[in-house]
Design goal:
By secondary structure, this protein is mostly helical. It has 24 helices and no strands. The longest helix is centred in the middle third of the chain and has 27 residues.
């Protein structure tokens, strides 16, 4: 029997998704209108197949292009717009930068210097990456931060793999390091207003609806302690509980690192040029708001900056001619190594989220939350946070805040409580998705590494989601009221 199941495992994995889809079609358990019920049925199908890995994830992401027009959910022209969303080109630009760093071995040099600094102990290396990524994400977008750290993390995994001891669990180390990059970027971003787009979206709503705002320093005073607590919890949960790596500090490995650094020698011309373009791109990511504020001729955003950096790699000469006769930092042949499937995966996620929003299912969710308006503030904050964290797994976190902000504000007004009591946990929860690659851009970037199986992301993300719900709820209930006068 077991042999038969293993043989037909791929075919059997299709059944649960199809069963969920048919159940919604035949029963309409939520009692919504026909179009909304059809969207829910296809959402169940896609998520079921994603979770069980029934087909390649990017292939499942193509289903909206077929199903949505066929069942009159949206036209093919409208559906296909999701697959050219600006965030997809942001990924593309970042991936090109990563390819150039990898092509000229700059990532190996940076990785060797990091290990030389932290030592070869696996726990210390992961802690260093968590702290560095979290700190960067406070000032850069979480997407840009992950793009910067991803090739460095991949190279560290490669270096450590060459000298891991017999008792070491290298698969745990590589899995933890990749997941830690994404989760640390998400958690670090909540510390500042500019760290992640949902924060900006909620403050925009607060200003429009209540004519008030929260000062940059006040937001940090309130949210940075929570961000640091989440980063520390991330380290403990992943390294000490879920995935201990048992990689010990090794004199042999240290000697190897120093030897490799000597072999690399001084920076080569291509390395310098890639570093210059990468550094200039990162500088623009950091200073774009300041640049946009002081001039209005050229308005920058993360996507434009990433694509400018990427295009520059195809323009600037490397100083060396490769086997194909090209003399550029990147040639188009280099892009064959890029994770194109992740771009499709994210497009499918955006298409599904837009369909859920257009079908007014998010409004229905708002009424569901309102049903918990019993006067018990703790229960209400917990419900808002729980819904926000898990909803962000299948919906753009910015779109989620834009849709949910008016709902929680109306609920706050009806109960005569400060809107920040529900608005801030809703906003923070939107940045904590960890279960699915399309939950946040950092999740999608690290999933492209090949070190992460979907089941690992689901398990780890579910545990961290629950921890985030508890910590954000307690923080908002006990700590936030002491700062609620900050407007």
């Amino acid at each position: 029997m077991n042999a038969w199941i293993n043989k037909h495992k791929q075919a059997l994995s299709l059944i649960p998704g199809l069963a969920i889809c048919l159940f919604f079609f035949l029963v309409n358990p939520l009692g919504v209108d026909s179009k909304a019920n059809t969207v829910l049925a296809f959402a169940g199908l896609m998520i079921g197949w994603w979770v069980l890995d029934a087909m390649p994830l990017p292939v499942v992401a193509l289903l909206p292009l077929v199903l949505f027009p066929l069942f009159s959910i949206s036209s093919i022209k409208e559906t296909s717009k999701a697959y050219s969303d600006s965030v997809i080109y942001l990924f593309m630009g970042g991936f090109f930068l990563g390819l150039a760093i990898e092509k000229w071995n700059l990532h190996k040099r940076i990785a060797l210097h990091i290990i030389n600094l932290t030592g070869t102990n696996g726990d210390r290396i992961i802690l260093g990456f968590i702290l560095a990524t979290g700190a960067l994400s406070m000032w850069l977008s979480n997407t840009a931060t992950t793009m910067m750290m991803f090739p460095i993390g991949a190279s560290v995994i490669h270096v450590i793999s060459q000298h891991a001891g017999p008792d070491s669990r290298l698969n745990h180390f590589s899995l933890t390091l990749m997941l830690a990059l994404a989760y640390a970027a998400n958690f670090g971003g909540i510390a500042t207003i500019i760290g992640t787009p949902p924060n900006v979206a909620y403050l925009r709503h607060l200003n429009e609806h209540y004519k008030q705002t929260i000062a940059f320093a006040d937001w940090m005073k309130v949210c940075m302690p929570l961000s640091l607590l989440l980063l520390f919890t991330l380290y403990v949960v992943m390294v000490k509980w879920l995935y201990p790596n048992r990689i010990k500090d090794s004199h042999e490995a240290r000697a190897y690192i120093k030897q490799e650094l000597r072999i690399l020698g001084p920076l080569s011309v291509p390395e310098r040029r890639v570093m210059l373009i990468f550094g200039f791109t990162a500088l623009l990511w950091i200073t774009k708001d300041l640049i946009n504020e002081y001039q209005h001729v050229l308005q920058l955003d993360d996507t434009i900056i990433a694509l400018c950096g990427a295009i520059s790699l195809f323009l600037f000469p490397s100083g060396k001619t490769d086997a194909h006769g090209y003399n550029r930092l990147l040639a188009w042949e280099d892009t064959s190594k890029m994770a194109w499937g992740i771009l499709l995966l994210f497009g499918g996620g955006i298409a599904l989220a837009k369909a859920l929003e257009d079908a007014k299912l998010i409004d229905g969710l708002g009424h569901f939350i309102a049903g918990f308006a019993t006067g018990n503030i703790l229960v209400l904050i917990f419900t808002v946070t729980l819904v926000s964290v898990f909803l962000s797994e299948i919906m753009s976190n910015v779109a989620q805040v834009i849709v949910l902000a008016p709902v929680v504000s109306a609920l706050s007004d009806a109960l005569h409580i400060n809107p920040l009591l529900l608005g801030i946990p809703m906003t923070l929860g939107a940045s904590c998705a960890g279960m699915l690659p399309m939950g946040t851009p950092p999740n999608a970037i690290v999933f492209a590494s090949g070190h992460i199986r979907l089941k690992h992301m689901l398990t780890t993300g579910f545990v961290l989601n629950l921890i985030c719900v508890v910590l954000i709820t307690l923080f908002s209930w006990q700590v936030l009221p002491h700062f609620i006068h900050l407007r």
